[in-house]
Amino acid sequence: MSEAPSTAPVCYRHPSRETSVRCTRCDRPICTDCMHVASVGHQCPECVSEGRRTVRQARTAFGGTLVGRAGYATRALIGINVLFLVISVITGGSRAIAGGGGFGGLMGSSTPLTQWGSVLGYASYVPGGPAHGVAAGEWYRLVTAMFLHYGALHLLLNMILLWQLGRYLEDKLGPLRFLAIYLLAGLGGNVAAYVFSPQNQSTAGASTAVFGLILAVFVVNRKLRLDTSTLIPLIVVNLLFTFTVRGISIPGHIGGLLVGGIVAALMAYAPRQNRNVIQWGGAAAVLVVLVIIAIVRTQQLLS
Fold it and tell me: Is 202 a catalytic residue?
């Protein structure tokens, strides 16, 4: 007499394995190798994968990812600035380390690298030599200048502020929105230096971007209804520093401060509905305006 076939359910992925466990989501039988512990019961691999795809990633109050809590973007920016100084030391020797005398020397000594990448309107390095500067087609200077410094002291002061302000903003906004503020503030400060500084005067430094971060923290804290009283003295002290210390680029600092505040306001006050469109569309609009201003200034210098 033949044995009756088993009627016990079998795993839908392994037909040779009998099981009494079912997926709490799709109700299909699953064996011990296929079951994943869920909040209630067990789920099959397919339902677990589907759940991961449909679960919305946690976001900050401004739509950024929580990966900003690790501060990777801030660390990367500091690393880039330090790397540029190392290259300056290699190409410029002791001048790149000393940077001149005292605070006044912050903007007083250049190396081949800072000479190559600083903001310069339109000038020749030697009498009768070829013209250099943004107006001469060296547009990259508007970007590279925010990563170059006139000495170790100049770098150290900027990196201390970048470390403090950058980690805070990256945590609140997420890395991409933080980088947008930093880069646009740096570009805005460099464009302002290009427009309002003498065409033969060169400027460089991360302070254009860092000044933007100062006002950005103020804007973000206002939106979050956090205390901003400690930021006001920081802004005032840095503005006094800007207007009283010899060799500081006043247009660069003020331009970076204003652009950083504008972009931060776009990121912080964009309504939840269509937030990404407003944030990134606004940032793109700021970039376009800065490019147009730089083009107009170039035409003035060449006319």
Answer: no
Catalytic one among 132, 149, 154, 253?
253
> Cα–Cα–Cα angle for 294, 295, 300, nearest 5°?
95
154 belongs to the catalytic site:
no
Query: Which of 109, 118, 207, 249 is flagged as catalytic?
Result: 207
Task: Tell me the pLDDT of the chain averaged across its residues.
Answer: 86
Residue 227 pLDDT class (50, 70, 90 cuts): confident
